[in-house]
């Protein structure tokens, strides 16, 4: 069975350019044939020299109905590729697309035009969310004019897919973000008062940069979620975040250690103060931030109980 790479994104996001650059990389060279299944044609064309050098053929699939197991299998039999690159149409229904049954472990990349990201996230969030949801890499092109917005865009993407690796590209090449840029709180402070946006940002950022938060006091409001294996002294303090629509929400939170956790009711709202401590979890083999709770106060459910990223 071939290696399969699915390159997703809207028209003119830079998918063809990405594929041209990828095929030219030394680490991406293979001995066998490569088949590109192109599902839309933009202004940029495949580089004929690169295609020839890498034994690559291109087949165009113009309609969503024709992108099916039967047609794809027929094209594979025709070309016998060792690798398949799919330049997917970002307006097609990725969620319900039927791929050949033997396509296992599809490597997905989402290509996004950063200069139009806000427009799409405000008006076509369900489409862009599907592009991001299964991607191992999310590449944002044309970042120069929205440099000050990139940190916020990164948090939006992480809300949809926490495991995605993010790549930001400008005219001069890759852009390295300052991880402290545009945070909704002052990371230099020893105590952080976390509002809705702050709590969401903290939960996402502290999983990746737990050392930055180690020892900081945090104050926030959240819901108690009892864990099956948490015993009497642990729970998750969490909030639901609307990432796409009312039917598409994700829970973000932090594990809390509290000597009276057994007194708390599942799903009740609390006002928490605690100290962030880094802990290594032997089961997951991951280092995680833990909130060692110093005080808890029961509160009424807030009017806006869901953190809304839709806008």
Kindly describe this structure.
This protein has 311 residues and is an alpha/beta fold. The chain is 23% helix and 33% strand. The protein has 8 helices and 15 strands. It has an 8-stranded mixed sheet, sandwiched between helices. It has a 5-stranded mixed β-barrel with strand order 10-11-12-14-13. It starts with a strand and ends with a strand. 31% of the residues are buried.
Structural key phrases:
alpha/beta, 8-stranded mixed β-sheet, 311 residues, 5-stranded mixed beta barrel, 8 helices, 15 strands
Largest sheet: number of strands, sense, barrel closure:
8 strands, mixed
Instruction: Identify the strand order in the major beta sheet.
Output: 3-2-4-1-5-6-7-8
| Share of residues in helices | 10-25%
Identify low-pLDDT runs: none
Mean pLDDT: 92
Taking Cα atoms only, what radius of gyration do you get, to the nearest Å?
23 Å
What is the overall shape? elongated
What's the order of the H and E elements? Answer: EHEHEHEEHHEHEEEHHEEEEEE
Count of helical stretches: 8
Please provide the count of β strands.
15
Structural class: alpha/beta
Q: What's the N-to-C terminus distance?
A: 43 Å
Strand content: 25-35%
Describe this structure in a few short sentences:
The chain is 23% helix and 33% strand.
Write the layout of secondary structure elements.
Blueprint: E1 3-8, H1 15-24, E2 34-38, H2 48-53, E3 56-60, H3 69-79, E4 83-87, E5 107-113, H4 117-123, H5 125-133, E6 137-141, H6 150-160, E7 165-170, E8 173-174, E9 191-193, H7 196-208, H8 210-213, E10 217-225, E11 234-245, E12 248-257, E13 269-281, E14 286-298, E15 307-308
Parallel strand pairs: 1-4, 1-5, 2-3, 2-4, 5-6, 6-7, 9-10, 11-15, 12-14
Antiparallel strand pairs: 7-8, 10-11, 10-13, 11-12, 13-14
Helix pairs in contact: 4-5
